[in-house]
Hints:
alpha+beta; 3 domains; globular
Amino acid sequence: MTATASTASPLVRQFRQIxxxxxxxxxxxVGAAVQAHWEALERIKDGNPWKHWHGKFDIGAxxxxxxxxxxxxxxxxxxxxxxxxxxxxxxxxxxAESSIRVYRRSDVAQARLTFADGLIYQLAVxxxxxxxxxxxxxxxxxxxxxxxxxxxxRVQDVMFRFARAYPAFWDRExxxxxxxxxxxxxxxxxxxxxxxxxxxxxxxxxHVARYRTPCLASxxxxxxxxxGLEHPGQSALLRYRQLEYYRMPFMAYLAFDxxxxxxxxxARVRPRSSSIPQxxxxxxxxxxxxxxxxxxxxxxxxxxxxxxxxxxxxQ
Length: 315
């Protein structure tokens, strides 16, 4: 972070945004019932940063603890077989193989974001994964970024502008609409690995005019290489088509010292009755999770707190 947090905006003590971006995979084996795109990914040796990630359940019995057991039994049996694999049945040809295969790259350590007013923040990249699914020509890109002690107004801006596959428009000054001014992927040593090109208006116009499909911003297309966006003349072995429009789906998590202190919740959340102790209002409200539907705050009160109001525009 390269600027002092604004004292006018509440501080988000912990912020996490998880981009969950599905794409359609183009078949690589004509006529095959199961395409197994991950096998084609493993065959690519040059310029391929993706490594198979086995997951926390791929451990020996001596390391299997109660926390693994509690997670497993939370799900229904058919979900257990899908997520964790099954020793028998049609879900897998091998013992206890999951229907999901995850590949992870570890070279991207940070995301440097430049806002419209020139302010710059650096967010840590917690994980960057590709999820493949058995017998489904769909892949999900999962990118999780995190930071601490950010002004709420900046967090709102990140949630609104960061997960943009391409610009929807440009303003009169030629700046991309509803996007960060710049996004840079950084290595552990601070080297710039890739930079966004939202401002290159003509590139996006030419791509749609020629191929009738929007192109991705350069930093997003770089992130999932060696996969390539499908269009005439694309030579990549693994190709994909977009399923979503320019707004990538995401989940977000925000933690505050006390959600009761947020401006929009102060009047409605705090107990009005003097019979309810003030400390009860604060119990279990130190952690707040946010999804696209708004804030969810844990509460010790019987009724759902009014701090479930959304804090950012979603269109």
